[in-house]
Amino acid sequence: MALLDVPLRFKNGAQMKNRFMLAPMTNTQSHEDGKLSDEEYQWLTMRAKGGFGLTMTCASHVQFIGKGFPGQLGIYDDSQIEGHQRLVKGIKANNSLAIIQLHHAGMRTSENLIGQQPVCPSSNEKHNSRSLSLEEVYQLRDDFIAAAIRAQKSGYNGVEVHGAHGYILTQFLSSDINKRDDQYGGSLENRSRLLFEILEGIRNTCGEYFLLGVRLSPERFGMQLSEVKTVCEQLINGHDIDFLDISLWDVFKKPEEEQHQSKSLLQHFTDLDYKDVKWTVAGKINTAKDVVEVLDAGVDFVSIGRSAILHHDFPKKVITDPNFEPIQLPASKAYLSEEGLSSKFITYMNRWPNFVK
Q: Residues 338, 342, 344, CA angle at the centre, nearest 5°?
């Protein structure tokens, strides 16, 4: 039986009070200069108060040109540290681990948003993006590391490096997108080099007691399941990380690639040997029964997105009620407002079919 409210200890000694993580979610609520807004503070601290053992921020960009959406929380400039310090204090006051997700959109941004052509490992006509020079790749690596240092100064327990969902580190990992002919392109070893260099740099500068995680997704954007599993194994065996966050889109489905459909997508990852690395999954874990099924499969903790939007106290509800199910959709604007979503976030949620009434 799943141990929902049993603490989870990471190898660096940090402890999570239960098995619930707030998934990092785009919410467009902060200021255009990347500084924290009261709305974003309210949204995140309300989830910490609602019982999440780990509260993760939205994707926070490490370079101005890595901004992927309006109102995105940034961590690319020292002027943003003050807001993060406030946020961390609010999260930790509720006995929740505070983790920031480090992000760069790469080609998945708009020229209108950043005022210049987006960047990519190699030029991409579909996304009107230009290739990064070798010096710019080094700078990108250094800026991820600098963002982690800012996060540590802000008081975060750790960082998650966003290598999923088609953003810049996925773009490097993807043989469909990355057409470079230097040490950062070609073989999987070369395509994963930037990710590994970022992680090594963060560990070396922030130390062994700073939580370090990676988010990966095994499908879409040219990602191959076998390659993502190989990268996971290399992260576990050869790189000093504390947790892996695997975003499956839907934890219960079969892989898209026919040759891997003999078992579920989730089982492909439960079959890996994680050793002392903890791991979580995300993707349509909506009800108490879903949570239990995933934890019973061998996952260490669950990442909750949609149900965390609908119920700020989803962990408390699931821990006390094994049959808990979220409210029926669509949800009214008044209800979402009561659950800590600002008008900007509610407007953004209109992108999800049948979510807002």
A: 145
| Distance separating alpha carbons of residues 216 and 232, to the nearest angstrom | 8
| 26-39 per-residue burial string, b: 16 or more CB within 10 A, e: under 16 | bbbbbbeebbbbeb
Report the distance separating Cα 119 and Cα 127, nearest Å.
Answer: 9
Domains of the chain: 8-326 (3.20.20.70), 328-357 (no CATH)
Global pTM exceeds 0.90: yes
Per-residue pLDDT tens digits for 316-351: 999 999 999 999 999 999 999 999 999 999 999 999
Whole-angstrom distance, CA of residue 321 vs CA of residue 244: 28
Question: Residues 235-272: pLDDT tens digits?
Answer: 999 888 999 999 998 999 988 888 888 899 999 999 99
Give the 3-state secondary structure of residue 211.
strand
Cα torsion through 245, 314, 83, 138, rounded to 10: 10
Tokens coding 271: 């079959």
Mapped onto helix, strand or coil, the DSSP state of residue 101 is: strand
Cα–chain center distance at 252: 20
Q: What is the predicted pLDDT for the residue at 328?
A: 96
Residues 281/314, Cβ–Cβ less than 8 Å: no
DSSP-derived secondary structure letter, 260: G
Q: 328: how many CB neighbours lie within 10 A of its CB?
A: 7
DSSP letter, residue 327: P
Q: CA-CA distances (angstroms) from residue 137 to 25, 133, 200, 225, 272?
A: 26, 6, 15, 25, 31
- The one-letter code for the residue type at 19 is R
Residue 287 · residue 325 · CB < 8 Å: yes
